[in-house]
Amino acid sequence: MSSSTNLPLSQTPQTLFASIDIGTNSFKLLIIRAYPTGKFHTITRLKQPVVLGRDFFSSSDSPPRISTHSQSRSLDSLLYFKTVIDSHRIDREHTRAVATQAVREADNQREFIECVKEKTGFEVDVLSGEDEARFAYLGVLQFLPVFEKLVLCVDIGGGSTEFVIGKEGKIVFCESLKLGHVSLSEKFVTSGGEFDILKMRECVRMVVEESGLVEKVKRCGFEVAVGSSGTIRAIEKAVFKGYCQYFVDNVGLLGDCRRDWRLSREDLKGVVERLLCRGAEGESVRRERFFKRRSEFIVAGAVLLEEIFGLLGIEEMEVSGYGLGEGIIAERLGMVFDGYDLNANARWRSVVRLAMRFNGKKRIKSAAQCASIAKDIFEGLRKCDGLDSDQAKLIASLDEKDLEYLEAACLLHNIGLFISKKGYHKQSYRIVMNGDQLYGYSAEEIKLIALLAKYHRKKLPKFGHASSKDFSEEKFRILCAIMRVSVNLQQNEWLNVQEIKILHSHESFKLVIGEEKDLPFLPGTPQPTAEDIGAELRLELEYFKSVFKQELLIVLVPSGSSTDSNDNIACERDVNH
């Protein structure tokens, strides 16, 4: 099981969704947390190597059937998935199970589907090849900034390969061919355990030629080719980690975020040549160690992809970390949330990628924590009662898009440290403004994010910096006030910024924060007092008051104390008095 990094996202409202992909090679469960703005992040990703296709791809003498043994393994995996889904309390309406090529071709398809429903409660939709291609494309749109481009998406599965050309979420052309890494492996494996590569290539070319795929793709054309399957991701990862070299580079935790997520024809050729090094000492062991469970089918998958590159004239392919599962969920989100933006998640990922390009693990963690604090303050202000008419109007102007700008600025505020510690906030501004790496944002939106990153410290912003047709200076000042407080609080190691609550009374706003009690002290070094913390925040608190026309009191309570009401903090210390 793997989970995504918990980078900051809006928390209200939020909903869990699940997709189950009953594939030819493996069964996959994906659980995501989604937001109406279009952003989502992965909660859980599970994979079970059932390999349904092994039952009938190796034999053409009888109708393809899912064996009793495979059916039993399938039920075990699906019951496990059900346990995970139930533990997350995901509504059945937010869960969808689909099956692809193996079940689509199985002679006992109905028997299998009915058995799954009886034993697990899952109603499985058997996708057509065209629907499978469409969902793969929708998944790509959640990962890569290609919404406005004419995209050729290639998805290599265990029993079939889907081709789809789309633009702005609409399908222009799609085709499904019965070519998969499992089916080709089973069909062309020799008695010695090697593969008949020549015949495998001939088979791929024949199927493609008979389908007329090349001519159809040429008629439609495409601006960019994208690969979305696990096989293609594994090959791209092999290039990234230097599989073709003698030593494999074991990159760190954030390595995947620094991947180019692209694959050239020369890169692919190098991987195929390495995989086909027959007789090389230790090569099979090396392959199994690197590709793990996928090693059994990676040769066929790589050869198939190389043929696709050649036949369709692809010189370079972008690689998507998302695919069918995310596409299934994206379609469901469009039904649940009015005005769901298919482009939003890829837009947010461009912010994350820019942050990770210039920051290491430690600075990314700090930036993410800053964004989390800013989100808590932002959401807390929107929930405050008892505001006067001017304050209510001011805060009512904030929406989910403003929160996205604020979180983006927090994630990017320290990227200038990559260049220089002195004046790094100015460098952060220049990188955001001139880097051309934030996808899906207008020029005015990028300017707003860059200005917030610039004015998170040092000089206060002057009038006129954020005025534009889209963003008033007033809104900029609100976000800037929140961000300056958030950055300062994040840098204070004596505070438990996981426990933050904002309250309001007629006299003031109160930001209630837990005190961290378990940090070690150097001998003779006293724990900073509330007054010390207040002094550090003086400039930020004054700016907050100038924006909201009321002071912000920072109140410290012991970590773990309730912060649900003003009554609970009446006897606690605040830094202003």
Automatic annotation (TrEMBL):
<dbReference type="InterPro" id="IPR003695">
    <property type="entry name" value="Ppx_GppA_N"/>
</dbReference>
<dbReference type="InterPro" id="IPR043129">
    <property type="entry name" value="ATPase_NBD"/>
</dbReference>
<dbReference type="InterPro" id="IPR048950">
    <property type="entry name" value="Ppx_GppA_C"/>
</dbReference>
<dbReference type="Pfam" id="PF21447">
    <property type="entry name" value="Ppx-GppA_III"/>
</dbReference>
<dbReference type="GO" id="GO:0016462">
    <property type="term" value="F:pyrophosphatase activity"/>
</dbReference>
<feature type="domain" description="Ppx/GppA phosphatase N-terminal">
    <location>
        <begin position="37"/>
        <end position="333"/>
    </location>
</feature>
<protein>
    <recommendedName>
        <fullName>Exopolyphosphatase</fullName>
    </recommendedName>
</protein>
<feature type="domain" description="Ppx/GppA phosphatase C-terminal">
    <location>
        <begin position="347"/>
        <end position="511"/>
    </location>
</feature>
<dbReference type="InterPro" id="IPR050273">
    <property type="entry name" value="GppA/Ppx_hydrolase"/>
</dbReference>
<dbReference type="Pfam" id="PF02541">
    <property type="entry name" value="Ppx-GppA"/>
</dbReference>
